[in-house]
Amino acid sequence: MELNERLDKFEKLVSDKPSNFLSKLAQYKANKKWIDHSFNVATTVLEALKHKGMSQKDLAKKMNVSAQQVNKIIKGKQNLTFETVGKLEDALGISLMEIISYNPVSEIKINATQVRSVEKTLTNELINNDVADFTFSDNFRQKKGVQMNVVYNNFTQAIKYPKVG
Q: For residues 24 and 27, what is the distance between their CA atoms, to the nearest angstrom?
């Protein structure tokens, strides 16, 4: 195939219309936050509909909105208002949104430091006090040391126990 033939075929594939990809990308980036939230709401609503055995039409009736609006919500294409979120929650008997109280970053850092301190204290107590209370099998004793994951109030700490007896 000659170069001219290939160029002709290529030109047939290329559209005369300008691409709007960059404008769509810019729009997506500008709206990414609410698009992501809308997607999460859509999947939650779909799960609730399935769980309750409801159709989109049933939901539209309960919300007193059009079936088209429910369809947009389900597709994640709707920038939801608080009013719409409230209607969804009431119609499905679910919670889609929780407002978390405001805490300054400095306060969060202090709390994280306190958590680390409590975690260290618990780890030390487990290592120092609880090893003597355990009865280990012979297989366990043959190992030089065993690492265990200790979970206490949702904190997981790997503890390397010393060789016992």
A: 5
